Amino acid sequence: MRKKWQLWVAIILLVAGLALLSIEPVKTALVAGYRPTVTHEQAAKNQRQTKQANYNMNQVKAVTMNQVINARLHAKDVKPVGQILVPTADVHLPIALGVANNTLMLAAGTMRADQQMGKGNYALAGHHMLNKQALFSPLYYKARVGTKVYLTDMNKVYQYQITTRKIISPYDVQVIDNTKQPLITLITCNDSGSKRLLLRGKLIATMALKQAPAAVVKLLHQKTNNYNVLAGY
């Protein structure tokens, strides 16, 4: 009787283990499936809805399996307004309105309702994951002073250059305030999650998308790094 009971326990543990192993491909597929084709018309339409987005960073939750599933089920609620590309840091993401959890699971999120690319302080938030290649994670490891950052609304390309890299307190909310000078501000967590990494840069060039460097245009049409975000979760 005891041996039979032990056999059943072994079977249950084996099945549970196989189920856990199968979760990773599912998690990867869930996020990898969100690769929106953002057109200028769509970006412009969504840009007119900026005031309807959620900009409350206090409501942002850690990335979990349940959060990812919810984000994919409600992907239609994510409002893309363009893309961010940081070639030397391997960052390429959709930019979407606000910092709602569903948005940040899949994209970089705008941090104020009045933001316009190429004007004032364009502030973006993104998650730092265990997977060093996902979302804003590469910025922590690869972005430096001098790094080039490209934003596009699918009509123009805005080229920025990072001038400041520092660790700040989560309470230093003034860093996303608007400015007269055209700036880019990128915010993500540090390795411990208790602080924030701030990357700030100045606008150095604005050009039509068709006139952007061929290498930049090519990268903008390749896959984004909002996949496999739960590797190691």
From TrEMBL:
Active-site residues from the entry: 127, 189
GO molecular function ontology, one term from the record: cysteine-type peptidase activity
Coiled-coil stretches noted in the UniProt entry, renumbered to this chain: none
InterPro entries to which the protein is assigned, alphabetical: Sortase, Sortase_A, Sortase_dom-sf
Keyword annotations from UniProtKB, A to Z: Hydrolase, Protease, Thiol protease
Any one of the GO BP annotations: proteolysis
UniProt entry tagged with the keyword Calcium: no
Keyword Ligase attributed: no
NCBIfam families attached to this UniProt entry: sortase_fam
Designated name of the protein: Class A sortase
